[in-house]
Design goal:
heterodimer; A: mainly alpha; MetI-like fold; B: alpha+beta; D-Maltodextrin-Binding Protein, domain 2; Dipeptide-binding Protein, domain 1; Dipeptide-binding Protein, domain 3; 3 domains; 4-stranded mixed beta sheet; 17 helices; disordered N terminus
């Protein structure tokens, strides 16, 4: 309990730091929303008027205090371009990212764990020779290449799946695979190397000497021990994906968090970008706390240390 | 690890799996059912693609996103392009108008029986409301289109409660009085910036207007049904439309990346694609071929590219140097190699087809690197100088490639030109600051009048600064501002011609480059397609006829 409250205070400090950082950075980089909005139809009068209506004529500390004051009350302001509350826009986009992430994680983890385990069990055998290069491809081929290849294969060539997102679950299959491809590769490689290490451990000899079947020994004893580092990597992957996958979302026209943030950067929509960054930071912070709590539950060593 | 830990681990995995089955499975299933019913009867569905999504459906809050304003709303007038390339203004919501002799007072009569798609009748008060909103909305981006009206400045500055220049006589008749005569005024009423809103609908919708499709209601041929941000726009035809029923009953515009767009078109899932949105290599290798000869739809874009030099950046303040740059750029080979000859060299300020355009000053500007070197030597820069060309990273391929050639051309005459690429927002900021040293720009007409281009660039010191040309001659700029008020057509045209000659030939204020064709490719399902008269990427769906 003590650990949890300590962590929560840490989260609040991190969030305020993130807000301050993003706030200052956005105002230091060149480009302002009034210019983007007016684009080619710019006049000095209009720039001045719009700058004023966006509140950007106030001093930086004044703007920051204003913003923080509202943010504490959960009001992240209004998007300059969409003219809607930032929180509403984020909550509208997040479910798409969540759906994509979950599907992608199922794909990546299932494939990654299974191929990693098989690769380790049949080390230097036929199946290993197939899965190992596949995992290498997984971590080395960029996501847009995978996406285009999938689109060519499943849409253009065989007409099996829709090209872009059309609200159906079917249209999320390709994006999920494209996004999960890299993660699957890393999970497989980490799983394989960890498991191989455990397979060489003395307790495996004991288990086999006791008369346990090889497969059972692997699945019951070695896999359990090999899984711990893989799980921490998975937690990182999960929070990374939840903060939005810009490329995947763009290629498949998925209106998720990544696309929202990208648009906000391009148009210098400061309230919206600040909102997405804060939301992402919050997600990652919560994700880390959950991961720590899980690790404490799963691993008695950590539990004992934190009780001391 | 104990047994309990394994159970916890298994539970965790199980939780993840069941969790997603719930969150993504259930709603998606029902969505898909909706999708299936909606796309039945594909006969009259038109499928289009866009490379970026819009940010608003409200024309007053954008200077770019016109796809909804153009198709869901109407302007008082509209523009038709004739076969000879000239344009003609035709009545749209206005049934008739007349102008007083001094060119300041316009009397209009609205078309009878026009209603918005929800049945709200269109009245003259709506016109007044629309222009008042343009001037009073705090984040209005369209004030330029109302500022000519008498009393507009007072309303904009908050010194008036209503727009005194618009007098409503009855439901169908109203008078607009301008502060100064402006011959381009009727043409400016034919651009999506001045679409007419309903006072009742906009007021009732409040902040939702332009954001929520059901509340963004116009008089136009289409109704906006859905706006799925970052994904698609769905339109359906408006059964209450006053004009001819459009051929496509439903229009789906999907936001796609260039490669994806190309794949969808090749597969037959798109009806029209815009070549400017594709990679230029794909356009050249796939579409500019015999196989697509009959499917290309092209329009002469009423706009032109030019290369701007900043007079405040030394040594470009020297007119000799600017003239040298004019001679150094090989416009013809850029046009023929990068644009494959799909365009025409321009030598002035007004693009071909623009009112005030004349052939007279065409052909004076010749590619002549030797003359350029001589001019540089005369100016005291025989050894050249360092120069920076700015490039917007979001520019289309052709512009990026053109800038490469320009830099090469300049290097050939001894000017050490380097290209600096920056993102769109920074580019605009840098340009508006008046400090960008040089860049290639494009202007496409909003309405057919020379004022639309010359005033934008050379109408005032502020305007010259915002375009980073920092043109110095305030007398000429005063003449540019005054030219718009000339009522007599001949007098007006000759003044515009004189200004063009002074700016481009005498003062070498920019390097006029070319106007190009805007290419689209249509599928077999499309019988006829007329692009926007000025060659915008946004199109009027009603100008598309399906087979």
């Amino acid at each position: 309990m003590k650990m949890l409250s300590k962590r929560l205070i840490g989260v609040i400090i991190v969030l305020i730091g993130v807000i301050a950082l993003v706030f200052v950075m956005l105002r230091v980089i060149p480009g302002d929303p009034a210019s983007v909005l007016l684009n080619e139809h710019v006049s000095q009068e209009n720039i001045d008027r719009l700058t004023q209506s966006m509140g950007l004529d106030k001093s930086l500390p004044e703007q920051f205090v204003d913003y923080l004051g509202h943010a504490v009350r959960g009001d992240l302001g209004q998007s300059y371009f969409f003219k809607q509350p930032v929180t509403a826009l984020i909550l509208e986009a997040f479910p798409y990212t969540l759906k994509l992430t979950l599907l992608s994680i199922i794909f990546a983890w299932t494939l990654g764990i299974i191929s990693g385990v098989i690769s380790a069990m049949y080390n230097e055998k036929f199946l290993d020779y197939i899965f190992r290069p596949a995992a290498l491809l997984g971590i080395s081929v960029p996501v847009f290449i995978v996406a285009l290849f999938l689109q060519y294969l499943f849409y253009f060539r065989f007409s099996l799946l829709p090209l872009t997102y059309d609200t159906s679950l079917l249209s999320l299959i390709m994006p999920a695979i494209a996004l999960g491809w890299n993660s699957a590769g890393s999970v497989a490689r980490l799983m394989r190397s960890n498991l191989m290490e455990q397979l060489g451990a003395p307790y495996m000899d004991t288990a086999l000497a006791k008369g346990l079947l090889y497969k059972k020994a692997v699945l019951v004893h070695a896999l359990r021990n090999a899984a711990v580092p893989v799980i921490s990597m998975m937690a990182l992957q999960l929070s990374g994906m939840l903060s939005g996958a810009v490329i995947t979302e763009s290629i498949f026209s998925i209106p998720g968090l990544g696309k929202l943030a990208l648009g906000a950067i391009q148009t210098r929509d400061m309230p919206l970008l600040q909102g997405t960054v804060i939301f992402t930071a919050l997600l990652i912070a919560i994700g880390n706390i959950v991961a720590d709590v899980l690790a404490t539950i799963l691993n008695p060593k950590i539990r004992q240390e934190s009780n001391r | 690890m104990t047994k309990r830990n394994i159970i916890a681990f298994a539970l965790l995995i199980a939780l993840v799996f069941t969790g997603c089955a719930k969150s993504s499975g259930t709603p998606a299933g029902s969505d898909q059912a909706a999708q299936n019913t909606a796309s039945s009867g594909t006969e009259s569905v038109l499928k289009l693609a866009a490379s970026t999504d819009i940010t608003t459906m409200d024309a007053h809050r954008t200077t770019n996103d016109y796809i909804v304003p153009m198709n869901v709303f109407d302007t008082l007038f509209s523009i038709v392009k004739n076969d000879d390339g000239s344009t003609q203004i035709v009545n749209s919501l206005a049934e008739s108008y007349d102008i007083s002799d001094d060119g300041k007072t316009y009397h209009f009569t609205l078309r009878d029986g026009v209603t918005f798609s929800d049945g709200t009748p269109l009245t003259a008060q709506d016109v007044k409301f629309t222009f008042e909103r343009i001037l009073t909305l705090p984040e209005s981006a369209q004030t330029d289109f109302a500022i000519a009206i008498d009393g507009a400045q007072e309303l904009l500055d908050g010194n008036a409660d209503s727009l005194r220049g618009i007098a409503v006589e009855d439901d169908r008749n109203f008078t607009i009085t301008l502060a100064e005569p402006f011959a381009g005024f009727i043409a400016s009423l034919a651009t999506p910036s001045t679409i007419i809103y309903s006072e009742k609908i906009v007021t009732e919708a409040g902040d939702d207007f332009g954001v929520v499709p059901e509340k963004t209601i116009g008089t136009g041929p289409y109704i906006i049904k859905e706006w799925n941000k970052g994904n698609s726009l769905i339109f359906e035809y408006n059964p209450n439309y006053w004009g001819e029923e459009p051929s496509a009953k439903r229009v789906e515009v999907t936001v796609m990346e260039p490669q994806v767009m190309n794949m969808a078109f090749q597969k037959g899932d798109l009806d029209i694609i815009d070549c400017l949105m594709l990679d230029s290599a794909i356009v050249d290798s796939t579409y500019k071929t015999d196989a697509y000869k009959d499917k290309i739809v092209s329009i002469d874009r009423m706009g032109m590219n030019f290369f701007i030099m900043n007079e405040n950046v030394e040594p470009m303040g020297d007119v000799q140097v600017r003239k040298a740059i004019q001679c150094a750029i090989d416009r013809e080979s850029i046009l023929s190699s990068i644009y494959e000859g799909d365009g025409k060299l321009e030598d002035g300020i007004y693009p071909t087809g623009c009112i005030g355009y004349s052939n007279e000053n065409q052909g004076w500007l010749k590619y002549d690197p030797d003359a350029a070197k001589q001019l540089l030597a005369d100016a005291g820069y025989a050894d050249g100088f360092d120069m920076e060309i700015c490039l917007d990273s979001s520019a289309i391929d052709a512009v990026k490639n053109s800038v490469q050639v320009i830099a090469q051309n300049l290097n050939d005459v001894g000017i050490r030109a380097t290209i600096r690429t920056i993102d769109h927002a920074s580019f605009l900021d840098h340009r508006n600051s008046g400090e960008m040293s040089s860049y290639m720009a494009l202007w496409i007409l909003d309405f057919n009048d020379p004022d639309n281009i010359i005033y934008t660039f050379f109408g005032s010191e502020d305007n010259a600064k915002l375009r980073s040309s920092n043109y110095h001659d305030t007398q000429v700029m005063d003449r540019v501002a005054a030219a718009k008020t000339i009522v007599d057509e001949n007098e007006r045209n000759s003044e515009y011609a004189a200004l063009e000659k002074k700016l481009v030939q005498d003062d070498a204020v920019w390097v006029p480059m070319f106007s190009v064709k805007h290419l689209f490719v249509k599928s077999d399902r499309v019988e006829k397609f007329i692009p926007h008269w000025a060659g915008w990427s946004d199109i009027y769906f009603a100008q598309i006829t399906l087979k």
